[in-house]
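User: Please look over both lines:
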Amino acid sequence: MQNTIRFCFAALSLSAAVGAQAARPLEFTVGTEYYNETYREYEGSERMMQQTGNLWSLTGGVKYRFNDRHAAKVEGRYSRGKSDYIGSVIDVDGNAYSYGSATLNGAPRRAYDIRALYEYTHPINDRFSVTAGAGLGHRVLRDLSSRADATDYDRKNQTTYAQINAGVNIALPANFEVSPRIAYNHALRGRQYSYHPGREATEMKQSGGRGVEIEVPVSKKFANESKISIAPFYRGWKVKKSDMAIVYLPQGVYGATEPKNYTHEAGVKVQYSF
């Protein structure tokens, strides 16, 4: 999180020097999104667990345009919903039972994502331009299973990542615009925390991950330069198995790992920029 904030201020300071003579309009964006999330963990090729649920999000951002080509922006998202869990019972000796032996419905789930990005726009003609960008982000996922079952445990994943992205802006008649965009995310630092009742939290390093984002916003511009947009989107992550953490229990000392996992999110967002 601190790296993301430092990057944002550095981008603003550097670009301010470059674009000192340019107009500097601020653009604010607020919105909401609704999506379906599927999260799966695997041990080898065998599925160990799955969570599925629907989440609502509030989104916001601010963009600072230094000139027609250079900009810096900060954007964030807060999501909440409930998920249904199906998995495998694992006893204290590490024995795993068949997939489907454990279930839990209606567990609260939360997600946070904030990032700071530099954006470059290259106009091709009056109706077509291409964009490219890069920056840093911080993502947090929280499972609050203990709120659905007091004997269960909560989990939290934190990932700091770098992003590169590219897109096109295509002007259409009647002040409409379509702006397909794709982004690649690469995990720089990842931590997985498990909070079991009655004992200290277990921390596991899980830094090997990568993700992709695809969206196709369709926007309507108004005379005051504001615009409203609607966009179907997909976000996905693939994360490698974590390093082993040592867990001390009354029964003895054990090693714990977080399995490799895949996250798929598909939904639609609506945003208003002004």
Notes: The longest strand covers residues 102-125.
